[in-house]
Amino acid sequence: MTETLPSNVTDISGHRLDAVFSALSDPVRRVILEMIAERELLVSEIAAGFDISLQAVSRHIQVLVRAGLVQQQRSGRISRCRIETGPLYDAAVWLNRYTQYWQDQFDLLAVLLDTGSESTREENNS
User: Closest Cα to residue 35, out of 17, 57, 53?
Assistant: First the structure.
């Protein structure tokens, strides 16, 4: 039996978070995104920054394109890539949902540490 999840669990604003996080899981793809965040680049310019084949770089770029993180524009044999920030924003929004959880955990830890230091002071003053 296939479990159906609510659309907001895997999909925010039409972007599939699983594809975004999967694409971001590879260090080569993260470097590619960093490179094209500066400016639009040709695939050959991107490939020049790696010790892997042009074909391997192209496969990484296609993963980024499918995840919606890169827009590729072709003109004959020339292919330009530019970053698409929408899916990154959506992933950040999803991750930020957990900010309050972690803030609550840190607040609790601070209370526990403060309570522990008060007990230690009381014992020392006795």
Answer: 57
Candidates 95, 88, 97; CA nearest to 13 is 88
Q: Please give the structure tokens belonging to residue 17.
A: 């978070």
What sign has the CA pseudo-torsion 7, 15, 23, 67? positive
Name residue 33's amino acid.
L
**Model pLDDT for residues 21-39, shown as the tens digit of each residue:** 999 999 999 999 999 999 9
Specify the pTM. 0.72
Could you report the per-residue pLDDT of 47-97, keeping only the tens digit for each?
A: 999 999 999 999 999 999 999 999 999 999 999 999 999 999 989 988 888
* One-letter amino acid of 85: T
**CB contact at 8 A, 44 and 126:** no
> Domains plus CATH for the chain?
15-125 (1.10.10.10)
Element (H, E) at 112: helix 99-125
Strand partners, 79: 74
Instruction: Decide: 86 and 67 in contact? Cβ < 8 Å.
Output: no
